[in-house]
Write the structure tokens for this entry.
Amino acid sequence: MQNKIIYFLTLIFLVLVSCKSKKDALQNTPIVNETKPAPIWVSSRPNNGFKYIGIGFADKAKGDNYQMEAKKNALYDLVSEIKVDINSNSVLYTVQNNSSFNESFNSMIKLSNNENIEGYQQIDSYENDKQYWIYYSLDKEEYAKKKAEKKQQTISKAAALINSSLTDEKNNDFSSSLKKRIQAFGVLTPYLSEEITFDANQTGCVKTVFDLTGLIQKQLQTITVLQPKALTQLLPYQKNYAPLNYTLQINGKTSLYNFPISIKSEEDKLKIVEKSTTNSNGEMQIKINTIEPLNQVVVFSLSPDINGLMGTDSVSKSAIKVLSQFINTQSLKVNASVRPIQLYLNCTENNLGKPTNNQVIKGFIEQKLSSNETIIVSNKADADFIVDAVSDTKKDISSEILKSNYQVELAELNIKLQLINPKDNQVLYNNQANEIYGYANNLDQAGLNAYTSDKLKAKLFEAIFFLKRKIIRM
């Protein structure tokens, strides 16, 4: 009995040892990874007369989004197979010689198709350790059917916008009318290479896209500007500028209200705010930031701000570049004159309270204020500002001591400067130059000598510097 037990235990032990050996052998056996062979469509593009084909791939090394990248490339490839045939009655046909425009237009068409394409199917996919591939197909007959349906829906949408714009035009709502016409052109953009016709019962005189673009151009050309009776005068280096006001009208009659305008100036020395909008009375403003010295007439160009009109309407904004190929609207011109600041100089020169009959102070001030920024005028009525200069001498407090000790008299010259507004005689600025002295054996000559002192030029130059800085920052 005991021998049987030992026999069975030995047998069980041998079985366990045998199983473990087999397990270890399996674990130590190298695993061979077999790479799935690439399907034929990866190396040789399928050719199917009934299907559009789109194949895309992406490198896995570019990141975790490689599958999305491959799908996007496959869609672009699919769209590129859909040839855009230019119909001789289409809008695009009229500009097909413009290669740069055609290139950007075709890119936009492909992008639009890529965003709106429907009905494609994934046929297969393949990947290895480096790349991911995907294969799409689209039934040509099904695509043509859906495209025709979508085109008709788009034409109906554009026709509704055109019809509504005609109603707005009758109600004198210029902005809304123009905006809807540009929106109609925008929704039609994917089909500009094809013939497009409207039902005259819906759109009146607009039967084709050519009629629509012509209507838009004609409407833009009705904008006019009411020219002011007098040319506006602008001065350089002013601290603040009053806006220039102009009125825009439609056909010179009705006010163009709430309409955005772009403003351009070709003069580099004049900086302006390049956007404006007419108010409820059709009035718009040109806001000026800075003007440097420029003695000439400057021209401002006013143009309809189509981008501003369309606001956040992305479909219409993308179509504006295309629309610009078919419309040509000239800018409206308004003028203003930039001239130096005109100063009238009123100078009184005394010596001990009596006129000197000299013009020492006047000559020096004229020299320093005659520049690109400021000029001296002889007619007080033409002046933007009046510069009033009063100079006089007096016996200095030290004169008695000098006379008793050295037989020398001492006179002090004082010059008062004022800047005056000629419209209301308001004093805008006060300054003075003093501590200017003259010596002589008598007081009268000492006063005259003060007018020829070297210190006079330095003191007067400093006073005029601050006076001029005030003038050009008014």
The two ends are 128 Å apart (CA to CA).
